[in-house]
Amino acid sequence: MQLPQGKKIFFASDFHLGIPDKASSLLREKRICKWLDSIRDEAAKIYLVGDLFDVWFEYKNVVPKGYTRFLGKLAELADAGIPIEIFTGNHDLWMHNYFPEELNIPVHFDSITFEVNGKKFFVAHGDGLGPGDKKYKMLKSLMNSPLSQWLYRRIHPDTGVGIANYFSRRGAKHQGTQDGAFKGEDREWLILFAKAYLQKEHIDYFVFGHRHLALTLPIKDSLYVNLGDWISYNTYGVFDGNNFSLKTFEAHA
Ligand SMILES: [Mn+2]
Predict the structure, then answer these.
(1) Per the domain annotation, does 136 fall within a domain?
(2) Model confidence over 11-29: pLDDT tens digits?
(3) Distance, CA 191 to ligand 1 centroid (Å)?
(4) Count of Cβ atoms closer than 10 Å to residue 253 Cβ
(5) Interatomic CA distance for residues 188 and 173, integer angstroms
(6) Nearest CA-CA partner of 52 in 32, 79, 37
(7) Distance between Cα 172 and ligand 1 center (Å)
(8) Is residue 239 in a domain?
């Protein structure tokens, strides 16, 4: 793909809509909509790299209540012909056909690679990549299994989403105390993953969510990026055809 003159590719992740409470989530949701409005004219493509919702669980005929402004904004941009792609994160991996069918937005359940203006991108939410976290990897494959999702869908949505909310909030608290700070280049799983990946294939830009760190780190002649989040940072990634930068959305809503 070659970017048209003046067009850019945008990346953001970890909106975690829904927490910590309705009022502050709504402020964040409106801020995200303003950001989407602000980039719409320049955007050749928008990648939303996972954990957009603190809990998302699709039933065959039911999706969770809420997030109307955000979903409406996605619909508006997609209908205007701006290509948007979504990644699932560890908080919202239970997506099925709602986004592709309702909004014409494809959903990636795994990492993707692509090339723009001769630069190679590797994009993933980042959960379950790299060494360690065996317990989570087991849990993820269990949660991704069609049988367990089918079984879970037998539970009434009020109960099913309620249980998911409960565990998600417990997890967030846990993560806040355990994983918040940068652990160092040799202890961050995604950095180790990127370094190992570079042994077999060249990538110019590794773009990850998940860690809630706003960080760019050169690894040899590649750039490793953590997109931050929209709880503390309001950060997003921009590729202008030549360079990748991490920016902060300043408008306050
Ligand atoms: Mn997250």
Answers:
(1) yes
(2) 999 999 999 999 999 999 9
(3) 17
(4) 13
(5) 20
(6) 32
(7) 8
(8) yes
CB 217, CB 182: distance < 8 Å:
no
Given a contact cutoff of 8 angstroms between Cβ atoms, the answer to whether 27 and 64 are in contact is: no
Ligand 1 centroid – CA 5 distance (Å): 33
Helix then strand count (H, E) for the chain reads 7, 11
Q: How remote is the CA of residue 90 from the centroid of ligand 1, in Å?
A: 7
CA 133 to ligand 1 centroid distance, Å: 15
Check: pTM over 0.90? Answer yes or no.
yes
Please report whether residue 253 resides in a domain: no
Q: How far away, in angstroms, is 4 Cα from ligand 1 center?
A: 32
Residue 47 lies in a domain: yes
Span 217-231, pLDDT tens digits = 999 999 999 999 999
Query: The domain spanning residue 185 has which CATH number?
Result: 3.60.21.10
Domain carrying residue 57: 8-248
Number of structural domains the chain divides into: 1
